[in-house]
Structure prediction request, 514 residues.
Amino acid sequence: MKSEKLILVTNDDSVYAKGIHALVEVAKKYGKVVVVAPDKPQSGMGHAITIHDPLRLKKSALFGDIEAYACSGTPVDCVKLAVYEVLHRRPDLILSGINHGENSSTNVLYSGTMSAAIEGAMEEIPSIGFSLADFHPEADFSASQVYAEKIIASVLNNEMPKGTCLNVNIPKLSLSEIKGLKVCHQAHAYWADRFEKRIDQFGQPYYWLTGEFSDVDHRENTDLHALKNGFVSIVPTHFDLTAFHFMQHYKNLENEN
Amino acid sequence: MKSEKLILVTNDDSVYAKGIHALVEVAKKYGKVVVVAPDKPQSGMGHAITIHDPLRLKKSALFGDIEAYACSGTPVDCVKLAVYEVLHRRPDLILSGINHGENSSTNVLYSGTMSAAIEGAMEEIPSIGFSLADFHPEADFSASQVYAEKIIASVLNNEMPKGTCLNVNIPKLSLSEIKGLKVCHQAHAYWADRFEKRIDQFGQPYYWLTGEFSDVDHRENTDLHALKNGFVSIVPTHFDLTAFHFMQHYKNLENEN
Prediction:
């Protein structure tokens, strides 16, 4: 008999978010679940780690009989603390999410949800980040749960290539409206950022980050294209940022020496 | 006559770090320099952005007659604020660093210095991150300045491919000891993280992140290999995390629908 799988669940919306509870419900069908997730919202924290402050880890009763901890750090801190302090071993699977809001395209870089999954990939642990294209705190995760279950089952049955993880985004549609799954590549899109400048009670300016998302990628096989067309997008993701195709471009610099 | 270049300089060690002043000294030979950098150390902040708090931007006199601002946010916030609020246009070049400590290998993901450069790449602005393999606050940046100048001159004379930036790491050696420049790819290495667990005055545990860097990449053309052998490493870097070589691996998931 195969031994029970150990599954770490984390996110960036905190232990209080509806999305992580929806993910734990699915995860517990596949093994022993341990939750280590932020004690407050950590959206937009990217791959940040906490260097200059100590970290706190507190048992949480929010998940009933599931062992759970609220961590004062970032999503990447949660993965590190889970692996090295809570579990003292590499789990068989790391699940991150389900995020309230999509993390397609270049959002993968800003996303705490996906950075937790990428940290898992760096530890050579099969990892999946799930995000629903709905920011609402009471978003309906039922269709996301169906697709999460399908993908988790597949990943547990087929070895995940080492050093990779999956970025899964689910459109804001009912189960019957979703057309299926598409394996995609990351779209090239960016935030045309604007700041809202306000003046405080002392006459000093402050700025709120805002912006509009600008899809500049017209290829058909992107995650954004899949989502717009009613599909769940899956992007196999790794952490090698080398632009291999441009290495030759800089060879003249080498020769200058 | 060509118009003067506009050069944004930022970092993650803050406006007070010796490294950014060393970089400004070089940058000002090539155009009009504007500094927008964190008002406190932001090492390890990765690609984090500030969503839940307002940002502050204060004029700084630390750079003499160079226009400079200290920003309350992350290095990526600095780039966004610089482009959209301070300069109101895309600068011709973004320089980040010179970091106190190397950012080779997978450190590119945790590094605020490199995330600022990657944010520049996302804005399609030629961007370079510089890091010296010396954490000391009084590190000697003189050799780094010579190589920074060489690379900046080359980048301004040869178009940088859109959507890319450079990750430059300089070994802790004197100018005469450095063997030259190598164009490399990112090494696969990771932090074998450990936490130092301590108990506070109330009997509660807290954790400090520590760890040892583990180079598991035995290929010859990595940035770590170059640094170990006395070369300055240059990694052309982009922000597409798609693991293209594994897209086929997941095609069976598509077919299940």
Summary: The longest strand of chain A covers residues 189-199.
